[in-house]
Design a protein that fits this description.
The protein is α/β, with parallel strands linked by helices and 314 residues long. It folds into two domains: 115 residues, Nucleotidyltransferase, domain 5 (2-Layer Sandwich), CATH 3.30.420.40; 175 residues, 2-Layer Sandwich (Nucleotidyltransferase, domain 5). It has nine helices and twelve strands. The protein starts with a strand and ends in a 7-residue tail after the last helix.
Length: 314
Amino acid sequence: MKKTLGINISHNVSFSYFEDDVLKKYYEEDRFNKIKNFYPPHPFLDKEYEYIVLKKFKNITFDLVSFVTSGKGDITLETETIKIFLKQIKFKNLKFFSNEHHVFHALSGFYFSNFNEAVCLISDGGGELYPKTIDLKALESIYYINNKTITKFYQHYSTAYNDYFRIYHKIPTHLKFKKNNIDYKLSNNVVAGVKYRNYSEEAGFSEFEAGQLMGVAAYKNKNTNINKNIINIANKAQEETLEERIELIKKAQTYSNCKNIILSGGYHLNCSNNFKLVKYFPKLNFFVDPICYDGGTAVGVAYGNIKYEKDFKN
């Protein structure tokens, strides 16, 4: 029996424990330390942190520990962060994926879905970097996954995540090209996850309070004391990003006739718009990743390295 531990070191630090290809345990550190959206402490600036969750695994020697993060581009920082985790566990083999964030969102959704095949749509706030850049981050992706293979169809990278690069290092909007049979789009556009974050901040919420903005949108036609401007911003965010997700699903249908659709990435915490997508596409079978935010990538990285090991050599 192979014992695998997947660890997400982005926000919502999380741990998934697999025995062979079956998930046995899933934990998030912030459920225990009560620090919402917990990030790993800075290895050079903060006191070395003792992970509460890892104490639950003190009697296990893992055959493989797989780490995943979002594309920050600072390998030295991430390597030092990982060393702190490794001091607290026993293991035989190690893998680290610093820039394959979206595929692990997709694999998390696929694992929980029980589909034999699916088209996976990822929408988040910028999960990985375009190769050899520090300013272009992936905001949306389309994958096809079955029980044997993973195929990337499409990925949209944007400078929109970073104000400095968006203003001073503009690239041609809607630059499209094909590489290794994958369609790429590079742009300065704000879409879905980043757009929602920006609207949240415009309405006075923090980066991690987009869910509150989603809730406010429900009060558009109701008598309430909520500031009308905030309600209008919330409604605008819902309507614009819904249209963008509809167009992404239509794009996905041009790559595959598979009717099973998985939605993952932080944007799809948006329950209201998820339901509207189901109604808009009645002939498609939708499944929303139950851990569609970064926490779920711990499941994806462990499952991916068990089920599709040949695809994840590093």
